[in-house]
Design goal:
Blueprint: H1 2-13, H2 17-70, H3 76-86, E1 90-93, E2 99-103, E3 108-116, E4 123-129, E5 135-138, E6 141-144, H4 148-161, E7 170-171, E8 177-178, H5 181-189, E9 191-201, E10 207-217, H6 218-261, H7 271-283, E11 292-300, H8 302-308, H9 311-327, E12 334-339, E13 342-348, H10 352-367, E14 376-384, H11 401-411, E15 422-425, H12 428-449, E16 453-462, E17 467-479, E18 483-485, H13 487-497, H14 500-520, E19 528-532, H15 534-537, H16 542-553, E20 560-565, H17 573-586, E21 589-595, H18 601-607, E22 612-615, H19 627-642, E23 646-650, H20 655-664, E24 668-670, E25 678-679, H21 680-688
Parallel strand pairs: 14-15, 17-19, 19-20, 20-21, 21-22, 22-23, 23-24
Antiparallel strand pairs: 1-2, 1-10, 3-4, 4-9, 5-6, 7-8, 9-10, 11-13, 11-14, 12-13, 16-17, 16-25, 17-18
Bound molecules: ligand C2E and calcium ion (2 copies).
One calcium ion (CA) is lined by residues 472, 531, 563, 593.
């Protein structure tokens, strides 16, 4: 149970925030990489496609050059003029890098590297110019200068050269040019021509270098900028969604936590909180050797209070009670509202007297909540000893507060109906009793089918003649699981559970069957009395049920006596009288069992038309010859005679008692003096003799 509870709480505490954040970061990184790769591809598609057309010019020049120089004799001036037709600025370099011919190549520098044009295997060699920093080659790719200032200067120079007199330029202290907004606008409406020296090697090893202009429309830059902006916007939204979902997750978790740990009526600690925090506290190393008190406090008659007032008023009182309890808690103590009218406390323990005084003080304060009402509380207390006192669990690892709370509840189970405050301390006997009751109810139903119940017969004798004149059938339970159980232990529980009616049927049926068997065997039978429980007498057709059972067995009705206990006389008297009369009409005898053990014996005698009075064994526990008991017994016998009833004295163990009873005219004696209850075989022997 503890494990289950811990599992549930761990599940509840599991934080999904980090999972959410991690998921978002992964998505974000992947998205960023994809977007960057995509925009780079677009950038280089633009650059490469522009260079490709320029490169075609160099390739053509190289083709013309290679073709021309292959011939032995060619006109070098003519070749130079032909090449000049393709490019205004070009040069032909020999193996040593010396210029063989060319035009307007003053800014041509050294070889810079090579790169491959997009979608082509062709390699272009790039030569430096005095503007070589604007573009450079890295890893075979043409890259724009990282020096943006230079790039902008070049761009603005270009714009200026296209007569931009109207542009107002701003110059800072370092004499560096900073673009004005209008200049920027112009810049973006123009194309930017970046100078490039592209080279191609001819068949004879000479290199044809031609200056070309990489014509970048500034709209291309805008496209890239837009792409970057889109990326930024997406990233921004992803970030916002992340923040929102983290907030939602955290607040949901808090809500779940409150649902699980907060009481809906009082707004304070609930059962889960009590068990969780209490257990945690008691298991702490520094608390292991402390003694605690688990208290269950029940507001008795809460339902009646709600009936007389309202549910709201009831809940209001519960809330105030909780606050009062909470205010009474010291450091390291817990109060909680458990179920409707039940509170739990976990208190430090000093000794029983101070605990009892403290609990009484708390109850008084609770009662003072509403001076117009007298609230009643039943309190159950279970002491939790220091952990060292339990060698099997010195660290309270298996400590289960729920079990201890249940013990405290068991302690306060109402044992009387009186309306006053009670404090009960838990006693292990209560648990043993409960275990016993559980065991009995587990075993009872199969006991009938398995014939575990056995009938014993206790003979009744006439004290004047010492003759066997009757018997009482008494049940015995020989259970394979519980052993030999005495009726004093299981009958009260059968009465509580209602199973007693089945026992009564069982006894009536088997006694009737035995009587029939004995008669058939030719024995002289005596009337046998069977105990019928109070629960059974509530049934209106009891007389008919008994008649049917006895008739079905084929036994004569006059040999069966029904014993009724005094407690049955508290029920509906008229119904009881009617049942007794009908039983007598059918031919049965009815007796009052245990006469004298209850409070209303005489009263019942007055109203009920009974045939036999059984004097309770309590009369014969002391010295019967003592004046007072003797008078009571002899007068009771006289009274019964006057009411036309026979008398049976129960529990008679001594000779003097028998003689006394015989002298007073008692009709029968049932007691150990004559015989203990006997198994059927032994009783039959008595019948025979
Ligand atoms: P009870 O009906 O008053 O039965 C008499 C009890 O007194 C029997 O106990 C019997 O063994 C005992 N007893 C008889 N003579 C003496 C004596 O001289 N000295 C002492 N110390 N005891 C004597 P038992 O059989 O243990 O039954 C106890 C109670 O269980 C019965 O009290 C009756 O209330 C109940 N019970 C027993 N059998 C049945 C049954 O078949 N049906 C019902 N409903 N209750 C039964
Ligand atoms: Ca009896
Ligand atoms: Ca009795």
């Amino acid at each position: 149970m503890i494990k289950k509870r811990e599992k549930r709480i761990r599940k509840l505490r599991k934080n999904h925030v980090w999972i959410t954040i991690a998921a978002f970061i992964v998505v974000f990184i992947i998205g960023a990489i994809v977007m960057m790769a995509f925009s780079e591809q677009i950038c280089w598609y633009i650059v490469d496609s522009k260079i490709y057309s320029q490169y075609t010019v160099v390739k053509n020049m190289e083709a013309i050059y290679s073709e021309t120089v292959r011939h032995e004799s060619y006109d070098i001036d003519q070749l130079e003029r032909t090449l000049a037709l393709s490019s205004d600025s070009f040069a032909v370099l020999d193996n040593n890098g010396n210029v063989i011919m060319g035009n307007d190549y003053a800014d041509l520098g050294s070889e810079d590297g090579s790169f491959t044009i997009q979608d082509s295997t062709e390699k272009i060699t790039l030569y430096k110019s005095d503007l070589n920093d604007l573009l450079y080659v890295e890893n075979g790719q043409l890259k724009p200068s990282k020096d943006m200032k230079k790039l902008f200067k070049y761009a603005s120079d270009q714009i200026n050269s296209e007569s931009m007199e109207d542009v107002d330029r701003i110059q800072d202290e370092d004499d560096e040019i900073v673009m004005s907004s209008s200049e920027f606008e112009k810049l973006f409406s123009k194309n930017l021509n970046l100078p490039l020296w592209l080279a191609k090697t001819a068949d004879n090893g000479d290199v044809i270098v031609s200056k070309c202009l990489l014509n970048l429309s500034l709209n291309d830059f805008m496209l890239i900028l837009k792409l970057m902006a889109t990326m930024f916007v997406i990233a921004y939204f992803v970030f916002i969604i992340l923040i929102v979902s983290v907030i939602v997750t955290v607040s949901n978790q808090k809500k779940n936590f409150n649902l699980y740990f907060k009481d809906t009526i009082t707004g304070g600690n609930n059962r889960n909180m009590y068990l969780y925090n209490g257990e945690k506290m008691l298991k702490k190393r520094r608390n292991l050797n402390r003694t605690y008190t688990v208290v269950s406090l029940e507001f008795v008659k809460y339902n009646a209070f709600c009936l007389c007032h309202s549910m709201d008023a009831g809940e209001e009182v519960l809330t105030r009670m909780y606050k009062c309890l909470k205010a009474n808690m010291n450091k390291g103590e817990i109060a909680a509202h458990m179920t409707i009218a039940e509170f739990a406390l976990l208190l430090n323990y000093l000794d029983t007297d101070s605990l009892t005084a403290r609990l009484h003080k708390i109850i008084d304060e609770l009662d003072d909540i509403d001076p117009d009402h007298n609230f009643v509380f039943h309190v159950g207390v279970k002491i939790v000893p220091p952990a060292r006192e339990d060698p099997s669990d010195p660290r309270r690892k298996d400590f289960d507060l729920e079990l201890e709370y249940n013990n405290a509840c068991t302690a306060r189970m109402p044992r009387d109906d009186k309306d006053d405050n009670k404090i009960y301390f838990f006693d292990q006997k209560l648990i043993d009793e409960q275990h016993w009751e559980d065991k009995i109810s587990e075993c009872q139903s199969k006991a009938i089918d398995n014939d575990e119940f056995v009938i014993y017969y206790q003979p009744k004798y006439d004290p004047n003649t010492d003759k066997l004149t009757g018997a009482e059938a008494l049940i015995r339970w020989n259970s394979p699981d519980l052993g030999f159980v005495s009726p004093g232990r299981f009958i009260p529980q059968f009465e509580k559970s209602g199973f007693i009616t089945e026992i009564d049927h069982y006894m009536l049926k088997h006694v009737a069957m035995d009587q029939k068997k004995w008669l058939d065997s030719g024995y002289e039978c005596v009337p046998v009395s069977v105990n019928v429980s109070r629960a059974h007498f509530i049934e209106s057709d009891l007389a008919e049920q008994i008649k049917d059972i006895v008739d079905a067995a084929g036994a004569p009705r006059n040999l069966l006596e029904i014993e009724l206990t005094e407690s049955a006389f508290f029920d509906d008297k008229n119904a009881l009288i009617s049942t007794i009369q009908r039983l007598q009409d059918y031919g049965f005898t009815v007796s009052m069992d245990d006469f004298g053990s209850g409070f209303s014996s005489l009263n019942s005698l007055k109203d009920l038309p009974l045939d036999v009075l059984k004097l309770d064994a309590g009369f014969f526990s002391g010295d019967i010859s003592d004046d007072r008991s003797g008078i009571v017994v002899s007068e009771t016998i006289r009274l019964a005679k006057s009411l036309n009833m026979k008398t049976v004295a129960e529990g008679v163990e001594l000779k003097e008692q028998v003689e006394f009873l015989a002298a007073k005219g008692c009709d029968m004696i049932q007691g150990y003096y004559y015989s203990k209850p006997l198994p059927e075989g032994d009783f039959v022997e008595k019948l025979k003799s």
